[in-house]
Amino acid sequence: MPLFPITAHHRLPIKLTKTNYSSWRAHPIALLTGHDLLGYIDGSFKKPSLLPNGSNATSVSHWVHQDNLLLAAIFGNLSSDILLLVSSSSSSSEAWDIPTRICAGRYRTRVNQLKSELYRVEIKDRSITQYLHYVKAKADKLALIDEPVSIDDLTLFVINGLGPKYAKIVGPTCTRETPLRYEELHDLLFAHEQTIKLQEASQCQLLATANATSHHSSHHQGRGSNCGGYRRDSNSNRLP
């Protein structure tokens, strides 16, 4: 098999940093899998041992040359701080393994953090649109690091944080046979939000009317009492 050179044409769109491991690794994995070279970096295609009679010298030489091409390609796609940690590597598998161990821990920590935030999310004083965008942004961040959130789980996260005002809509939403798309979930909750606002506005109006009526009645009763008192006072002071 001829050597596969890694040229500028194969340069990754981003270099590996301590925060973008998951999105970075997708490109080289796909590229090397497509060219049947993944075994070099994952360690499954090890360097062949040179036979005593040297009959496989060509194969050994080919492996060394190809591995060095891959090693150089990995070096060229690392940020300077990651490269400092990897530059002493003597094989592509070693150069691949070091950043994987360094970055994977941070990656797992970030995944756990985002999932924890989703489990504890609450609508608080947000509108439905703001709340859904907030939850969706968390889910999108997980998707960017290869931990996509299913629409069922997204719906569950959303309704768990809605609060008692939305209790009537939670049951039917959870028991649907087919999951709601994000846009459908937004429309459903937005409509319920508007209903709640109308009900609250109506209650406020009724309360204001009741208060105004009570105040008006008290005002007139007070005036009648004062007038009566005045007449009584006048009569009591009238000369015989």
UniProtKB/TrEMBL annotation:
Residue span of region Disordered: 213-240
- Composition bias, Basic and acidic residues: 230-240
Q: What is the name listed in the Swiss-Prot or TrEMBL entry for this protein?
A: Uncharacterized protein
